[in-house]
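Incident log, structure service

09:12 report received: a user says their structure output differs between two submissions of the same chain.
09:20 pulled the input from the user's history:
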Amino acid sequence: MKRLIGTALVLVLFVLGAATLLPGAARQLPAPEKFVLKYGLTVYYLRNSDLPIVSFRMVIRGAGSAYEPPAAEGAAGLTTSLMMKGTSKMGADAIAEALDFMGANLGITAAEEYAQVYGDSLAEHFPRLMEIASGCLTDPAFSADEFEKERSLTIDGLKSAKDNPGSAVRYYFQKAYFGGHPMGYLASGTETSLKTMSAQAVKDFYKNHFRPDRAVAAVVGDIDKAKLVPLLEGTIGRMTNPAGAALSDAIPALPRPKGRKLLLVDKPDATQAYFMLGAPGYAMGDKVTAAASAMNTLFGGRFTSWLNTELRIKRGLTYGAGSNARTWAAGGLFTISSYAKNDKIGEMLDIVFALLEKGAKEGFSAEELESSRNYILGQFPPTLEMNASKAGAYVRLAFYKLGFDQYDKYLNEVGRLTPASVKAAAAALLPQEDFVLVVVGKAADIRPLLAKYGTWLEKKITDPDF
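09:34 re-ran on a clean worker, output below:
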């Protein structure tokens, strides 16, 4: 089920763009019914009786890591983890056992802009699933024992991430790119922030940020609306808004690198060097989305992309290389990542920079565009077949204030793309000089190979945090 959530998220990150729907085009996502519960929770509903399964999704605006107090980095991640670790009526073990007995899943996690809740079960168990979800959402215990346990596990996870350069490079990149901007706050926190975190900070984050007037939910599956509405009113619909005005949910404009910001992280025992390069992308709903998606598919978004073809298939420098677009309401991020043996990282980066220049200046051929178009049009529709993916799409589209015909518009826009429009997207998004580049590897071996790219700030993997 977690894979489904990830698929839905990637789906949204790439396809929420502005376009025009062609008359008579088939809908990719059926229009749901909408209703609002007593305390302000908006719910979207679609009946689907093909299978006796029901999926539930919720996002809560302003409850993600970008809203953590600077002195309590990691509060969002700890809060959502602890909400699953017991209520006043059920302990963590009882919750886990109940879910196992039903063959159901339930989780609460923190993204940057929101917290998200997901649950899936057989239709016969859905009322019980909602009872458990309601307890976790409205009555979390936040016990001292579970707080200490979860904090220790998170710290251990951060230490383990430093042992894996492929994981570590992403943490270092997020900090290097965003700096003190709220999007640079880690949902997991850092070792330093977690060691000083208090249980009260978690309780305060929950109290201030988990509000039904900032939440939107979706239910898709084999359940009648006549049964669903009272079920939700008696369970998750009991969420109430705390006294006082809601905190601001505005996120400042994302930083835009000026020149090359280069960071080398020394991991003396590393036999391979991992890199991540990033530059400004585009905001959720931007009109460039379709062209950018086609461009990314060709540049690094599939196995036969430019990056993977040059770095893996032709030269055997790596087992994988790719590019990715992350999009938020306040802006976006375009990243490239891969890895190679320490003595090959210079050769790899030379190729990456050459491909960036080629893509930005020359664009892609009509044949390449047609290949990308066919790939997108073939890969996209199956991602919305399941109840879980539909429910996830509803809440994210609603969160970003985009219509439920957005995917239809997107696919129609993909059908209209020209080499010129994709070249324009490449010129705007493929960085030449203004970017952040982070490399994690054995500095003694790779430092001489990296010197030609500019002046590097250096850190040691053993230094505190990221």
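09:41 both user submissions now match this output. Likely a transient worker issue. Closing.
09:42 reviewer note: The first helix runs from residue 2 to 15. The chain is about 45% helix and 20% strand.
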